[in-house]
Amino acid sequence: MATVSNWIDHLSASEVAGAVYPGVGSEGILVIVGIIIWIGWHVVSSMQESNKMNDIARRRPGKDDWKSNTPDW
User: Fold this and answer.
1) How far apart are the C-alpha atoms of 7 and 21, rounded to whole Å?
2) pLDDT tens string 24-69
3) 33 and 27 in contact (C-beta within 8 Å)?
4) Which of 34, 38, 56, 65 is disulfide-compatible with 61, CB 3.0–4.6 A?
């Protein structure tokens, strides 16, 4: 079990070089990747919803069709 008795000496050691956790310095890249995934998710979900709405509009349901609503899945 590793123990640290003096954080100042530990963080200034050459083998540590200020790293307290793994992946130090990759936060900016991870934020950019997260934003790209977030925007991509919105684009994909918007396309899927548009396709579903276009399918419903193509079938041109009448005003009473909701009474016999059966899912397509």
Assistant:
1) 14
2) 788 899 999 999 999 999 999 999 999 998 988 888 777 777 667 6
3) no
4) 65
- Give Cα separations from 71 to 48, 66, 68 (angstroms): 16, 11, 10
What length is written for the chain? 73
Q: Which amino acid is at 73?
A: W
Give the C-alpha separation, 46 to 63, whole Å.
Answer: 26
For the chain, what are the domain ranges? 30-58
User: One-letter amino acid identity for 64?
Assistant: D
Three-class SS state of 46 = helix
Instruction: For residue 30, give the amino acid letter.
Output: L
**Verdict on whether the full-model pTM lies above 0.85:** no
DSSP letter for 24, please.
Answer: T
